[in-house]
Design brief:
The chain is α+β, with helices and mostly antiparallel strands. The protein has seven helices and eleven strands.
Length: about 250
């Protein structure tokens, strides 16, 4: 890229950053960016970005909208994983790299957003420049995480169902003293839940396909790691230790 082209690209990115300075840090970027051709039902700005703290420890997952808002304000930098190496970019240098990749036809693995005068790739990972606290090491017990842990699979019949056709079953029923915990709640289809009723699996002669356990990290992350475009996240996620908080 020529010196003149680099200067023009830097001026464009500075203009985009200036347009964002008045907005709160936790709000979407707004007009300067719009989603383009992500190939998914969600727009490129709704795709997910892994956030690292200053020590390169994964702390949460956010939308691309919020990630760009942080990059605009120099609160974070892009971390790009390439050939086993971590490459660091500020917003302006990432915009330049994005333009070059676009020109060379090498941006097929990225989601893209369009600004007023240029297009920029959605980063998969960003690093906070002023945050070094560790993430919480417990996973919230809620309906979304339970369904994600069990992969929308009924734990009695083994079939997969849409969320609207699933319920949560107490393995040891409440009527017999069972409580709400990771080890006593499972995903069950409506039919199996009704068949089991207020009985234990043994009393109902129904076997669980797997023993319910508390996940070591947010199960939603495991779901996303199955998608090729989030492959770079694996470099920063340790199955045995870190849990990632979804925001």
């Amino acid at each position: 890229m020529s010196r003149r082209a680099r200067g023009r690209k830097a001026q464009q990115t500075k203009s985009a950053k200036k347009a964002m300075d008045a907005a709160p840090a936790d709000q979407p970027p707004g007009r300067p960016l719009v989603g383009v051709g992500s190939g998914d039902h969600a727009t490129a700005l709704d795709s997910k970005v892994l956030v690292l703290n200053k020590l390169y420890v994964a702390v949460r997952v956010i939308s691309a909208r919020r990630a760009f808002s942080m990059l605009f304000r120099d609160l974070a930098e892009v971390i790009h994983v390439e050939d086993g190496q971590y490459l660091n970019y500020d917003f302006e240098s990432w915009a330049e790299i994005s333009a070059l990749r676009r020109e060379l036809g090498e941006g097929g693995e990225h989601d893209w957003v369009r600004a007023v005068q240029f297009e920029i790739a959605v980063p998969r990972v960003i690093r906070l420049l002023g945050y070094d606290r560790l993430p919480r090491q417990t996973v919230k017990l809620n309906r979304r995480n339970l369904f994600a842990r069990d992969r929308n699979q009924c734990q009695y019949c083994g079939n997969h169902f849409p969320t609207s056709e699933l319920s949560i079953d107490h393995v040891h029923p409440r009527s017999q003293g069972g409580g709400d915990s990771w080890t006593n709640l499972v995903c069950a289809c409506v039919r199996c839940n009704a068949r089991k009723g207020g009985r234990t699996p043994g009393q109902a002669k129904m076997d669980l396909i797997r023993k319910p356990v508390q996940p070591k990290r947010n199960p939603m992350i495991a779901v996303r790691l199955g998608q090729q475009k989030y492959e770079s996240w694996k470099a920063f996620l340790d199955n045995a230790y870190w849990s990632v908080e979804l925001r």
